[in-house]
């Protein structure tokens, strides 16, 4: 029986593809050790990934795929993706950024971009036959693309059309079904985790022997099937603890444990605290309406009931707290998507809402209708005063004072250790976005890096916060001993940064010659919160205690 995906693809190849134009934006061959090009990033174009060697995992939005050489991976526009290599020395792949156009039916001779999944049905993992030929096609495209002549670039566009012809002829939905056998078993676990699941059951679903299933699952996902079932049960138990006043015995039974005492031991082993302690911390359903408020709540040893979570936009919180936070608000373009978040909060019915005062008048009114809301002054107060204000509002003033005292102690130790290591070395923080290079400092960098850790700035100005465009010649004149680099994780910027590092002016910089350039990430360096600032201190100690050049 033909699957929906197969039917969509057949419709596309038979009735649409003849009128489609594929336009290659760029092609790059990337190795696992080129880590800055593989981080979770946003794309406004289609992305095609062709693996040439090694193993790793692709996270496309919230879906994870094990990378294989007999498949291609397509990421749609306006999505995020990132690669985690199993071994940075082995993983190799082609990354092709492209657009898809079709003549508009309404306006003849007008090309319309195909950006929706129903228009361009290849998304995610797609199995292909003759995968070796894909690599040969990519080799030829890359060779022509790297030539200087316009006629060679034109040839690379023709070869790119031929690549898609080969893909269209080679898509193997039979192999796709075979490759997703483990996914079917995984889906079964996610739906039936509260039942008595056995390896024999899962092996039958995957249509392999039990022994082979055990080995293959562990090799593919890095965790055993039974450990994954435990993870699902504990995650669901956390949600139940946060959402209801059910007794521990009832929660244990709902997630698949007949013995509440065994469940308690299992929970403490996995989470680090007993169910009773965890439930006590979740008595109130507090919504953090903006991402920095997650960092403030965690400093108070409180976990939000609802908060903005996403693998890229709030990477740290998504990675570490997505199973603890039941309601995931949108973290992408919150100023534009606030109405959807309001609707989610109306349904979630939190007891209390924490917001920043940047919310517009309509947002404020609707938030106040849902629950008592604290609007924290973002510009008027520093992060310390914000933390104390939140602590007062939630009845956790003592916890706020205790955290700040511990933070100052950690800051002092880090400052003394780094001063001993670095002496009077001068620092410059550079931001790379698109084709622009800028001397950069935001509130967190000013408060923690320059004021708190007392790092010596190479660029001196009266402004505490700045983003000043700069040339490499001007950077050389500032003569920094070390450079911290904040590189936007999107394709155009990453390609510009790659070329920038190959330039003579870059390689002549003293910090570059001495291996004193360090990559920093927007998370936590662009978040203004207590927890983010503690993480900045930790990163500085790790980055600057030894030579870790980008």
TrEMBL record:
For whether the record's keyword set contains Cytoplasm, the answer is no
Known SUPFAM superfamilies for this protein? Helical backbone' metal receptor (SSF53807), Homeodomain-like (SSF46689), Regulatory protein AraC (SSF51215)
Its taxonomic placement starts with: Bacteria, Bacillati, Bacillota, Bacilli, Bacillales
Chain ranges of the HTH araC/xylS-type domain: 183-281
PROSITE patterns in UniProt: FE_B12_PBP, HTH_ARAC_FAMILY_1, HTH_ARAC_FAMILY_2
Record keywords, A-Z? DNA-binding, Transcription, Transcription regulation
Is Nucleotide-binding one of the keywords UniProt gives this record?
no
Residue ranges annotated for the Fe/B12 periplasmic-binding domain, each copy included = 285-548
Protein name stated in the entry: HTH-type transcriptional activator Btr
